[in-house]
Every structure is written in structure tokens, then in C-alpha cells.
Design brief:
The structure holds 2 protein chains of 2 kinds. Chain A is an alpha/beta fold. Helices cover 41% and strands 17% of the residues of chain A. Chain B contains 11 helices and 2 strands, in the order ααααββααααααα. Chain B is mostly helical. Chain B has a domain of 172 residues. The longest helix of chain B is centred in the N-terminal third of the chain and has 36 residues. The chains are: A alpha/beta, B mainly alpha. Chain B: GO terms for molecular function: transmembrane transporter activity.
């Protein structure tokens, strides 16, 4: 199923948005201002597209590849919304190298072979100049060989376990060490935590992340892991493990539970009388999106450790949140991954303009060093390893479903997808 | 792992662990009852059972929204209204499905399996399109949250108690209906010999429709109750379906008592093993044990003795 591209006529920009775009542009090299200066000055198609991508004199086609049906639709909806918003905004500003972005949306249907098939379609038939998509690691692993074989560019939004790096992928979410280490350091310093109970859903991301957490706890912090446990995806009964937690009385519960299990876990934790205002719980898997399902009153008091919260107090984020709600409704919430998905189209635009070309090889080569100063999370820069430098923050869940940001790292955390000593 | 604890602490933990097992038992019974009635009495394998449950969960969500916005003073008791509405909604949908789909497939059990599986996919997408792909959070009245502290360590979850009493009441009602009411008598007659039951004047089609409706309705109530302990989203029904089938098949397809017995065995085994081993390992061992027992006893734990 493909969607028609958005109408080329854009409504007048709200002033907040205009301010933000100007802000972003102020920090860019002169090339970024080019499309605003003169339409006629857009470089010739033959010069910016030497490999036969879907680029014409006035448009460029990109792909959006997420699940809008199946189990993962619940998580990927926000990413699709963010990517469409970014594309709209870029077009309103004049597009990329003077060309409006058209998008073709494909549905991965929560099925990994379908992701691979649709990725091939987007690259081979539609000649997309870039693809924004995938959510689970499994879907990314399924499309990776396709992107490498047909030389495409994928902007992948989810925080993930690391252990991967490709010329053809830009990882706009955090890899595991960025997310985990700062959080563990914080909880050790702030709460004087000595004992940790690690929990997770049973698949690659929680297991790899907990492995990193355990190494950091035991080797660096010199404290103790008193339990580590995994549950099948979709597990709904946590009373036994809650009893075990009560018995071992850990200083910190470190939970990486995903999907519907999350809801069951926090509801049962609360019902069992574990008060998160007294018991410290740190999670790296619950964004504002998940709290919608869990219910704010069930998780209030828990700490989450990631790079973005909807409540971040900076001008970039304020205009991003208001634009997002204007486009998708007042009740929508924005989680970490949604923001990371929003970065994708913008980073691609900045990279293409830096490279002065849509060619995949040139874009890949130009990516390291590209910085996006108007990012809602503040500021990001692409590392040589195609991951992002970004700050890590700790938020505390409130009953209204939002996080209160209580700590952020002073420096940008360096992405390190193959961390030495943590594998 | 027990060396560092005093005797009284250990005692408390075992009490709580026993209670956790009982909650799991109630959840299993509640999940499986609707399916057992349909599967056992009609021979229809209802793969859409989870989706009927989720319909009940959504009804609960909307009832809670309604009470919050329109009748905030009655919010503390909305859950009872929600369960009633969930029964009607899921039961109504069940009767409609029986009329439109199932009744044409009674002689083809494998086709009902495919048809209801298709139905489950359709329902999931309908929920996703109508209610949105994101999960919704059902807010509970405050009296249903938290726990009763019996001693320092032993705490009894209120929603656990609620699920247990609900399961008890529903099981009792189903039992009474099955063995004391005219409908139950007719159902049992149809199960034992469909042709003879028809010959003595029982309208077997009507009995089937009502049975399917009641089975689905109970699924709706279960879904409503599970908003207390689990998630409400378009595909959340899938979380329960495997365990549900496990309980029904293990118990012996045609026996309600068998279902209860098997729910008890599986839940206690699982919850005890989860305490001593890890979650995933416990699940694997439970499944292995069930497979092993079914190999020795393919008909399930308890079987209804009928003449073929």
C-alpha cells in the first residue's frame, strides 16, 4: 500500500516552527540556506544524482518502512508520525537541494521477511534515496543485507543492543552502553545503590543490555547483582518474581521488559504493595508511549534512563511537541523512539546538503560529523561509526504519564556499539 | 538462596507464593472456561477466543471513561457495570458470529479452526482501526488497587482476591447452569448424542447458538477482569490464547471439572518453578511436562465417559 505524497502547497508556518527552522539554519553551513535563497539555483539533477535514484528536478522520493499492522503497530505508529512531520517541515522550508520530498510508505506488517521484501521493493523498484524505518532489531537484521546489497540508506530510530555498524545505516537511537552506563552511575551515586535485580523479556536486546549492565555493576561499580531473570515475550504473570524481589530486597530493580508484559508487570508490582516511591526501579524500556498502556498511576515514581523525554525543557523541544500535537492530535504522546525517528529525515537532509549530492556513497561518506542543532533532544552529531553522540537523561515517571527530567549527563555520550570489556 | 532468612520470613514467603499460585489458577480458570464450554460442548476450536476477551477489555475501558466523565460519583463501582456490559458485548458478537460463520461449519472441525483464526485476525485489525494501535490504560477505582498487609511481609493483593472471587462465582454459575438448568441438560444431551437429542425434540441449533454466545460472553468477562492485571491493546488477546488452549486440552476437552483440575496443576507447577528457576525456564519445563503427560494420556486428565 503506498500513500500519495502530501500536497505541495503548505499552510503558512506557525511562528514557533519558523523560529525553529531559522534557528536550525543559522547553525548550518551556507549550503543549507541555498534552497531558501532561490528555487532556480537548485543544482542540476545530473550533478546530484549519478546513480539513478528517484530524484527529479523538483522532487526526491524516500521510503517509510514501518509496521502499521500486526503486534508492532503499537510501537511503530509514533515513528511513522514523526517521520511524516519531519518531511512536511523540510518541504515547507524548501526541501532538500531545492527538491520536495515525496514519500512512499510500505507496511512491514510486524513480519521480518515482509520487511526485507518491502525494503527491496523500495530500493529496487522505487529507487528511494533514503529509507526511514524498522523498529525491532529483528526487522533491522532482516533488511540489513538488502540495504548492503542494493546500496540503500536506512535511518533506524530505535534504541538497541549495539554490536552492529554498517555503511548503509544511520542509527538515530542510542546503542546500549549510551543508555545503560550513565544511568547505573547515576543511581549508584544518587541512591547509594549496592544491589541490583536485573529483569528482562527474553530476546536479544534485554539480554545484551543486561549483560552490559552486569559487567558495569560488577567490574566498574564493584557492587552486586542479586538476581537476573528473563520472561517469554507476552508473559503476563509476575507474582512469583515479585515475591523473589521481596525476598532479596535489592536496592534497585533494573527492568527491561517490553510490550504487553510491561503493563502486567507494573500493575502487579503495584498490586503487590511495592511502592515505587520507596523502592528504586530503573527501566530503559518504558517511554511515554508505554505509559499510556500501563497507566501513569501504576508506574509513578519509576526512573527511566534514555536520551529524550517529552517534557524536556528547551525551545527546540517545545516547538517540536506543539507541531507534533498540531499534526497528530492533542492526546498523542512522544517517546524516545518517536523523537529519534524525527531526527532521521532531518539528518538525511543535512547530510545530502553537506555532500552536495543524493548519491548513497557520498551521503554515507559525508555522514560523520553532521550535526543537527535544532534536534528536540538538544543537539546531536553523527559519529564515525554512524551512531549519534547524544546526552543521556534520567526521568522520573509521574502519575500524569509524563517524565520529570531529573538528571542529564554534562557531556554528550560517545556511541560505542562494540564496547570493550562489556561483551 | 534460603540460608540468610529466618524461619518466619521463609514461612511468609511460602504463604505469598501459595497465594501467587492461587491467583494464577483463577486467571487460568477464567481464561479457559469460555473456551472449554465451546470446545468441549460443541467441538468448535475457537481461535478468536482471545479477541472476544479483548472486546470485553475495551468495553471496560470505555465504561470507565464514561463513568469518569459523566458519573464520577459512581466510579468506584463502575467495574461491575463494565463486566456486565462486557458479557453482553462479547456474547452478542459470539451469537452473531455463530449465526454468520460457525453454524455452516459444524461438520468440518478443521475448517472452524481456520475460520475462527481468520476471524481473530480480522477482529485484531478492526480493533486497531477503530480503537487505535496503541494500548489503552484502564483506570481502576482506588479500592481495587494495592494490597492488604496481613503481617510485615505477607501482603495480599486486592485485585488478586477480586479475580479469585470472580472466578469462583462464575464457575459456580456455569456449574449450576450446566447441571441444574434446562439449557444445561439440553447441552449435555447434545454433547452425548446430537442426533438423538434432535430426535427427542431439542432444538440443537438454538442450543449451539446459546452455548457459543455464553462461552464468548464469559471470555468477555475474563477480558474485563484482566484489565486489572494485564494490557489492553488490539493484539493483547494473543497473550492468553496459548495458555488457554494448554489448560483446556490438558484438562480433557469435554470436561469442565477437568479444565479446573488442569488449571490448578499447571498454575501451581508454573508458579512454583518460576520461584526456584527463571521465568523462561519455568515455562519450558511446564510445556515439556504437559507434552509428556499428553503423550501418555492423549485424551487429557479427565474424560467424559460416553458411548460412541
Amino acid at each position: 500500500m503506498s500513500h500519495k505524497p502530501p500536497p505541495t502547497e503548505m499552510p503558512a508556518l506557525p511562528s514557533a516552527l519558523r523560529r525553529k527552522l531559522l534557528l536550525g539554519m543559522a547553525a548550518l553551513p551556507a549550503a543549507a540556506v541555498l534552497p531558501r535563497v532561490a528555487w532556480g539555483a537548485a543544482p542540476a539533477t545530473a550533478a546530484v544524482n549519478t546513480t539513478g535514484l528517484a530524484v527529479s528536478d523538483d522532487s526526491v522520493t524516500v521510503g517509510i518502512l514501518h509496521s502499521v499492522t500486526g503486534t508492532m503497530a503499537i510501537s511503530e505508529t509514533g515513528s511513522v508520525q514523526a517521520e511524516k512531520l519531519a518531511i512536511d517541515q523540510i518541504n515547507a522550508e524548501g526541501g532538500v537541494l531545492g527538491r520536495k520530498i515525496k514519500f512512499i510508505q510500505e507496511d512491514g506488517a510486524s513480519d521480518w521477511p515482509t520487511f526485507a521484501e518491502k525494503a527491496k521493493k523500495l530500493l529496487v523498484n522505487d529507487k528511494c534515496a533514503a529509507v526511514f524505518g524498522c523498529w525491532t532489531s529483528a526487522s533491522r537484521k532482516a533488511v540489513l543485507p538488502v540495504f548492503e546489497q542494493y546500496n540503500g540508506m536506512l535511518y533506524y530510530p530505535t534504541f538497541y543492543e549495539g554490536l552492529e555498524q554498517s555503511k548503509n545505516v544511520i542509527y538515530t537511537g542510542q546503542e546500549a552502553t549510551q543508555q545503560i552506563i550513565a544511568g547505573l552511575d547515576w543511581v549508584t551515586k544518587e541512591k547509594g545503590a549496592k544491589t541490583f535485580y536485573l529483569l528482562g523479556s527474553d530476546y536479544i536486546w534485554p539480554r545484551t543490555s543486561n549483560k552490559i549492565a552486569r559487567k558495569h555493576i560488577e567490574n566498574v561499580l564493584k557492587t552486586k547483582v542479586v538476581g537476573e531473570e528473563y520472561f517469554p515475550l507476552g508473559h503476563t504473570q509476575f507474582n512469583s518474581v515479585i515475591n523473589k524481589i521481596k525476598l532479596t530486597k535489592p536496592d534497585v530493580i533494573y527492568a527491561i521488559i517490553v510490550g504487553g508484559s510491561n503493563v502486567a508487570f507494573y500493575k502487579q508490582l503495584k498490586a503487590a504493595g511495592i511502592d515505587l516511591s520507596k523502592q528504586t526501579l530503573v527501566t530503559i524500556s518504558v517511554t511515554e508511549d508505554e505509559i499510556d498502556g500501563i497507566g501513569g498511576e501504576n508506574i509513578a515514581g519509576a526512573y527511566a534512563c534514555m536520551k529524550y523525554f517529552q517534557s524536556l525543557d528547551n525551545p527546540n523541544n517545545k516547538s517540536f511537541v506543539s507541531d507534533f500535537k498540531k499534526m497528530w492530535g492533542d492526546k498523542t504522546v512522544i517517546g524516545d523512539v518517536t523523537q529519534a525517528a524525527y531526527l532521521g529525515p532531518w539528518l538525511w537532509k543535512l547530510t545530502v546538503e553537506k555532500a552536495g549530492s543524493f548519491d548513497i556513497d557520498k551521503v554515507a561518506a559525508a555522514s560523520p560529523g553532521v550535526e543537527f542543532t535544532a534536534a528536540p533532544e538538544g543537539y546531536v552529531r553523527i559519529h564515525d561509526n554512524h551512531h549519534l553522540w547524544s546526552k543521556t537523561r534520567v526521568g522520573r515517571a509521574k502519575a500524569d504519564g509524563q517524565y520529570e527530567v531529573i538528571y542529564e549527563t554534562a557531556e554528550l555520550m560517545e556511541p560505542d556499539p562494540f564496547p570493550k570489556g562489556y561483551q | 538462596m534460603f540460608a540468610d532468612y529466618s524461619l518466619s520470613e521463609l514461612g511468609s514467603i511460602f504463604v505469598m507464593q501459595g497465594f501467587a499460585g492461587l491467583i494464577l489458577f483463577s486467571v487460568f480458570v477464567l481464561m479457559a472456561l469460555g473456551l472449554a464450554i465451546i470446545f468441549g460442548q460443541m467441538g468448535v476450536i475457537n481461535m478468536a477466543h482471545g479477541e472476544f476477551m479483548i472486546l470485553g477489555a475495551y468495553v471496560t475501558y470505555f465504561t470507565s471513561q464514561f463513568f469518569q466523565n459523566v458519573l464520577p460519583s459512581l466510579f468506584p463501582i463502575y467495574f461491575f457495570v463494565a463486566m456486565g456490559l462486557a458479557f453482553l458485548a462479547s456474547g452478542g458478537l459470539g451469537i452473531a458470529v455463530e449465526w454468520a460463520l460457525i453454524r455452516h461449519l459444524y461438520r468440518r472441525p478443521l475448517d472452524t479452526l481456520l475460520a475462527t483464526w481468520g476471524l481473530s485476525l480480522i477482529l485484531q485489525q478492526v480493533y486497531r482501526s477503530v480503537f487505535g494501535p496503541r494500548e489503552v490504560g484502564v483506570e481502576l477505582p482506588s479500592w481495587m488497587m494495592g494490597s492488604l498487609p496481613l503481617t510485615d511481609v505477607i501482603e495480599v493483593q486486592i485485585n488478586g482476591l477480586f479475580v479469585m472471587s470472580l472466578t469462583f462465582v462464575i464457575t459456580l454459575v456455569v456449574g449450576l447452569m450446566m447441571f441444574r438448568s434446562r439449557w444445561g441438560q439440553q447441552v449435555r444431551a447434545v454433547v452425548q448424542n446430537r442426533v438423538m437429542a434432535g430426535a427427542v425434540g431439542i432444538n440443537t441449533h438454538k442450543v449451539d447458538r446459546l452455548t457459543f454466545g455464553i462461552g464468548c460472553g464469559i471470555a468477555g468477562v475474563a477480558g474485563s477482569a484482566f484489565t486489572m492485571i494485564g494490557s489492553t491493546g488490539p493484539t493483547a488477546g494473543q497473550l492468553y490464547i496459548v495458555d488457554t488452549f494448554l489448560v483446556v486440552v490438558f484438562g480433557g476437552a469435554q470436561s469442565l471439572v477437568g479444565t479446573i483440575f488442569s488449571a490448578f496443576t499447571i498454575s501451581q507447577a508454573q508458579s512454583t518453578m518460576e520461584f526456584f528457576l527463571s521465568g523462561s525456564t519455568a515455562k519450558v519445563l511446564t510445556l515439556l511436562a504437559v507434552v509428556g503427560i499428553l503423550m501418555l494420556r492423549p485424551q487429557g486428565l479427565l474424560v467424559l465417559k460416553i458411548r460412541r
